[in-house]
Design a protein that fits this description.
binds aspartic acid, single chain, 306 residues
Amino acid sequence: MPKSTPIPTPRVLIHGGAGSRQPTPSQSMCLTEALIGGYESLKTGHSPLDAAESMICYLEKSGLFNAGRGSLRQLDGFQRMDASIMEGQSLSAGAVAGLEGYLHPICAARRIMADTDHVLIVGRHANRLARHFGLARLVHRKSSTPLMNKRNSRNTLNPKSQALYRQLGLYDTVGAVAMDRAGHLAAGASTGGVAVMLPGRVGDTPLIGAGVYADDTAGAISMTGLGESIIRAGMAKHMAILLGLGWTPLKAANYALKALVSRIQGEAGCLILDRTGRFAIRHTTPWMSAGYWNGCGKPVVKSRFP
Ligand code: ASP
């Protein structure tokens, strides 16, 4: 009898960041609700891209995460947001960096993917496009106390304080991956960045191959953690290559994360889903709020994945 190929089960995975702080119950609840919405979207015939976008939108809108409404501020007091989205069938991708004043950076990324010839648009030009696309606005509030001004910049930028502050406050970025019945994959992520960042800083999240990657012949990956280290290690594409070589998600994630820590003392967490539906959630940080669901039983959301 010929060996039959397993039919992929639709599946969604989500994260609300990796860091040193235990996720709150309301964050966990919000992740669960987003998972349910994402899975329903797949079940009703929407694409994995739609499912990933809708899950991330839900978290951006909640204000409970460092993305969309709840984004951190850069040292000049402004929120500048990054996001990207990718689909695995055609390797199409869209991304936005340094977006100001819009609620759903992930929708801006999707529109850049769908409606332009480009992958990444940054800064005020990204704002202009978001306005052109009629995306929902975020009430733009400049922080009354910019962290950086002439008087305090020296203290604020002290490397020891930065490191400590990051340890206390990592990260609450959001991301998602999804697979439909046909085995098509998508991945996305959205963030307000990290604690203590210079104006104009861009992390891994909008960089395809660093923060996000999806390829139907390999898998889908969404990263979170210290963007500078994730970029330098080219994490998402690295893991996709390992999946393409036949590694299991668990082995690929462990290998890439171990290298990140040992080579450059990086910190990260990941969602990694392969083309057969096997997946892993791994992190080098003490906590990572994340979950998964394939429509059976209840969605699973946890704060650690040892
Ligand atoms: N990776 C994001 C960044 O560096 C932050 C995070 O994942 O929490 O911008």
